Amino acid sequence: MYKTFFGLRGNPFNVSPDPRYLCPTPHTEEAIACLTFGIQSRKGFVLLTGEVGTGKTTLLNKLMECLRLQRVNTAFIFNSRMNVPEFLDYMMADFGIPCESPSKSQILLRLNHWLLEQYRLGETAVLIVDEAHNLSDELLEEIRLLSNLETASEKLLQIVLVGQPELEQKLRQPHLRQLRQRITLRAKTQPLSLAETESYIAQRLAIAGSVRQDVFDRGALMLIHRYSGGIPRVVNLMCEHCLVNAFVAGEKTVKAEMVEAISIDLDLRHGLYDSPAPLTEPQSVPAGKFELLEAIKALAEQVRHLEQGLAQERKA
User: Fold this and answer.
1) pLDDT tens-digit series, residues 163-185
2) What is the pLDDT of residue 299?
3) Nearest Cα to 129, choosing from 202, 55, 48, 65?
4) What angle do CA 31, 33, 36 make, to 5 degrees?
5) Where are the domains of the chain?
6) 129: helix, coil or strand?
7) Cross-strand partners of 186
8) Angstrom distances, CA of residue 72 to CA of 41, 123, 133, 161, 235
9) pLDDT (tens digit, 9 = 90+) per residue, 255-278?
10) 24-190+288-315: CATH superfamily
11) Model-level pTM?
């Protein structure tokens, strides 16, 4: 509706987790590099957590783009409301592993043979489970047991658990301590700082085709950050409403007054997002972590090269 008015080719603030719109903040780059490092190093279990709307699924889609570019075998479980047989059946189907028998023992035997064959070929298999905070304790235990598929030195199946902070709380339960102890790497998504919010909005507009730098004025950007709390999904929601209202009013630039009105319409003034996200502060590095951080930095560079490869593939 407003695309022509603002000179856009697409909708810049769609809430779909499109990896093209992943904003390269230090937190997202560290998270995707940490996940990539865990997978490439065959660490077994890796955990990704973050508040609702902070871009976990978008980050996962970017990760899977990179993995597919490397021809890595992936299975992505997005519905965590499954029982054990449904979970195993879906995982096998997504990996593309045929198994005629519904027997759990036969499924696990077939999976183990397939993983060993992939290992002999030098291939990696990754199981990604989204919304893992909704998994039953029984299913979490079943996933833990999948990590027992291994050689004498390496895990055959790399498992990425993704969820809200409640997942971390669930894993602190005494009866899940065996699973918690197997998680070797942890990554988190964070709300955006003010500078990151401004960069995020500018990047999405540019990807959608905008050549203007003044679609949102400075006051509008500051208020969007304030009322969204730096949560990318809420930023998208506010920006979408702002563009629609500006189009209706015939205004080429979104100003602070319009954002104030939108914040009232969306009931954001007294809700969860009524205070700004803090600016990113330098954090001290615990002793013994420098080697891992250096590896993550190197992998971040690899991720950037993979993204360039993806861009070239799209052009081709």
Assistant:
1) 999 999 999 999 999 999 999 99
2) 57
3) 48
4) 110
5) 3-15+192-265, 24-190+288-315
6) strand
7) 47
8) 13, 7, 25, 17, 33
9) 999 999 999 999 887 544 444 444
10) P-loop containing nucleotide triphosphate hydrolases (3.40.50.300)
11) 0.81
